[in-house]
Each structure stands twice: as structure tokens, then as C-alpha cells.
């Protein structure tokens, strides 16, 4: 059962501005997930809260290797992509209201050039917890510039055209058929909540400790 103080927290949160709600919900996910999900023994440790740059890079290497082994389409796009933003582990949890939180690295030519977090808040009939990762392939300079130049954060769904790659699309996707600005691959999805949508989440540049 969720502690009374958490119920009070969410009740007070409902009266706050939506932007504050989304951020606060996302930042609270590592604690909430231990109550409603327990999807992994170390779910709180892996959420990315407080992760150092070294830890994010290490997890990014592992995530990309797994993605490339399981998706020939991702390998093909990586050869011409301007950059790839990788979130190795995102925790999504909810009980009526919820959200997600994670930290990742922006890679250009195999090297990290910046770090970003992602937070989101949501409402509706939802209960449980879920972990997943995703990688955003920026295929043109315009899309990448939009990410880099938005110092206040990028709300996914606004700006560059974005396509989620499913199994069917992955079979035909290559550098010739890839005509959109950004392609998103999700991976390592585990947990109780259906879907791993990132629409409406906010991506913001961060400066983690080394």
C-alpha cells in the first residue's frame, strides 16, 4: 500500500501547474515504482536518478549493443544518422496519475557529446510500473538542431517529425526509405503497464557529475 504521505503529495500536486506536475511526477518515479511495481530488484538504482556521466555512458554502450544485435534496421540507420539519443533505462509508473523518468546520452560518430533527461506526467486509468529504453535516430541536421537549440527543453511531439519503428516497419526501413527527421526504437520493455509511449515527454539537457 502506498504511504499516506505519498497520497497527500499527489493530492497537492493536482493543484499545481501542469508543467510542474509533469516534472515532479517524473522525478518521483523511482520512489513510486518500488510501491506499485517492484519490476526489478534494483529498480530504483537503475532509474538513472543521480547517475554520473560515466554510468550513463556505460549503460548507453550496453543498450546500443543490444539494440544493434536485435535490429538490422537500427544498424542501417546508424550509418547515416546525424546523432543518436539513447535512454538505456526509463522507469514508468502510475497509480491514477503517473509519469516516467530517465537519463541518456547523445552520441555523434560513436562519441557522447551531451547528456539529456526525460520526464513526463500522465493521467488516466493506470496502475503498475514498467521499465524500457529507447533510442532516437536524428536523420537530418534540422531535427538535431531543434534538440540542441531548445535550452528550455523539447516536448516530444512538437517540432521535428517523429516516427516510432515497429516490427513491420523495421523489415523495410533502410537509408533509402527513411525520409522522416527522427526515428525511435524502443527496447527492453518489462513490467505491468501496456505501451512505452514517449509522446508529450520533455527532454532537457543536463550536466551530470563525471
Shape: globular
DSSP helical segment count: 8
Share of helix among residues?
Answer: 25-40%
Structural domains: how many: 1
Average per-residue pLDDT, rounded, comes to: 75
Low-confidence stretches: 1-14, 29-48
Rounded to an integer in angstroms, the radius of gyration calculated over CA atoms is 17 Å
> In whole angstroms, how far apart are the ends?
37 Å
Q: Strand portion, in percent?
A: 35-45%
- Report on the biggest sheet: 6 strands, mixed
N-to-C SSE string, H for helix and E for strand = HHHHHHEEHEEHEE
User: What is the multimeric organization of the chains shown?
Assistant: single chain
- The secondary structure category is alpha+beta
Number of strands: 6
What layout of secondary structure does this protein have?
Elements: H1 4-13, H2 18-27, H3 29-36, H4 43-46, H5 53-70, H6 72-78, E1 83-108, E2 111-138, H7 141-149, E3 154-155, E4 162-164, H8 167-172, E5 182-191, E6 202-206
Parallel strand pairs: 4-5
Antiparallel strand pairs: 1-2, 2-5, 2-6, 3-6
Core attributes:
210 residues, alpha+beta, six-stranded mixed sheet, 6 strands, 34% helix, globular, disordered N terminus
Tell me about this structure.
By secondary structure, the protein is an alpha+beta fold. The protein has one domain (4-206). 34% of the residues lie in helices and 35% in strands. It has 8 helices and 6 strands. The longest helix is centred in the first third of the chain and has 18 residues, at 53-70. It is globular and about 35 Å long. The N and C termini lie far apart (37 Å). Residues 1-14 and 29-48 have low confidence and may be disordered.
